[in-house]
């Protein structure tokens, strides 16, 4: 009796199932082999799950007139009421303008500076000098914004500030750096540079040192200079970080600007992050502040997608 042949579709399904089993076994074997590495990233995964993904369920209150004593299930639905209010209030355009200007300072003033500093540090041949410079410029990153702003206050305060006292001693007038709207943005970007400039060079220096020397030799044979070779080494990193930075278009962080904010510079220092705190926690407008936060997130996602597509069209790898 001739053996009955299995249908081709059944054989195909069986082969796919076997392939899935092999991949699953390979994955499990890889996890067992590198279990210590997975344990190291576990705290980071838990952080994002607990503080980033799980709270996203609360975004639903942006479409409700949320009342804490009623809860999410008991609060009435109001649709896009809070979004309409957000886009029609006069403060929206002020917040948008202030946020975009400060974001522009971050992109066009701060972002290129770690790149330039990394290129300069890479040219330092004395290892002891190089390590000393890196240690000094890394220190501010580990200070909180409270300390950074406090030190700035000591230097720039009108009453007893070191810099203003120096101006007074040489016959110049004192400048209200901390309260004048004309100086608020300058002080802001100066603090960002002071705190994050050194720390931001780490990834660029790592990219430079991680490049295979054979690639340098090949580029040199093609006539590339030292600066061009270094630029080619860190260009993919620059593109990736720039795309991620663009995703923070409306997300500048709360703590820094809240510490700089006062009644005299509010017209230029009030941004979405500080307004969300004022509206949500101080005034109890939880649904309205949540709608503003959701708007920020959607804009950030949209900007990342657009920036990534542009990078792809220009021949870069992008972030995905």
Automatic annotation (TrEMBL):
Topological type in the membrane: Multi-pass membrane protein
InterPro entries: MetI-like, MetI-like_sf
Entry GO CC: plasma membrane
SUPFAM superfamilies registered for this protein in UniProt: MetI-like (SSF161098)
Residue stretches spanning the membrane: 36-54, 100-121, 133-156, 286-307
Keyword Chloroplast: no
Single biological process term from Gene Ontology: transmembrane transport
Subcellular locations according to the entry: Cell membrane; Membrane
Keywords: Membrane, Transmembrane, Transmembrane helix, Transport
Top-level lineage group: Bacteria
UniProt record similarity statement: Belongs to the binding-protein-dependent transport system permease family.
The protein, known as: Sugar ABC transporter permease
């Amino acid at each position: 009796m001739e053996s009955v042949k299995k249908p081709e579709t059944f054989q195909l399904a069986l082969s796919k199932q076997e392939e899935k089993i092999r991949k699953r076994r390979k994955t499990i074997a890889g996890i067992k082999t590198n279990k210590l590495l997975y344990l190291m990233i576990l705290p980071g995964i838990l952080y994002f799950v607990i503080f980033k993904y799980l709270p996203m369920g609360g975004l639903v209150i942006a479409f409700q007139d949320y009342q804490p004593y009623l809860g999410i299930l008991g609060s009435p639905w109001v649709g896009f009421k809070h979004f309409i209010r957000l886009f029609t209030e006069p403060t929206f355009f002020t917040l948008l303008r202030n946020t975009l200007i400060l974001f522009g300072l971050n992109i066009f003033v701060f972002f290129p500076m770690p790149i330039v500093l990394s290129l300069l540090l890479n040219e330092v041949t004395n290892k002891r000098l190089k390590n000393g410079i890196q240690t000094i410029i890394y220190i501010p990153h580990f200070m909180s914004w409270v300390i950074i702003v406090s030190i700035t206050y000591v230097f720039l305060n009108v009453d007893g500030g070191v810099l203003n006292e120096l101006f007074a001693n040489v016959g110049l007038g004192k400048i209200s750096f901390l309260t004048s709207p004309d100086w608020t943005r300058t002080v802001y970007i100066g603090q960002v540079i002071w705190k994050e400039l050194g720390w931001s060079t780490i990834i660029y220096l790592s990219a430079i040192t991680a490049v295979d020397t054979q690639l340098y030799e090949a580029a040199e044979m093609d006539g590339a200079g030292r600066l061009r070779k270094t630029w080619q080494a860190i260009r993919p990193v620059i593109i990736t970080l720039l795309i991620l930075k663009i995703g923070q278009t409306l997300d500048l962080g709360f703590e820094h600007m809240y510490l700089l904010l006062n009644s005299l510079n509010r017209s230029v220092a009030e941004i979405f992050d500080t307004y969300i705190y004022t509206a949500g926690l101080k005034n109890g407008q939880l649904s309205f502040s949540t709608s503003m936060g959701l708007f920020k997130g959607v804009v950030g996602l949209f900007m990342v997608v657009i920036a990534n597509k542009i990078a792809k069209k220009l021949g870069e790898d992008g972030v995905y």
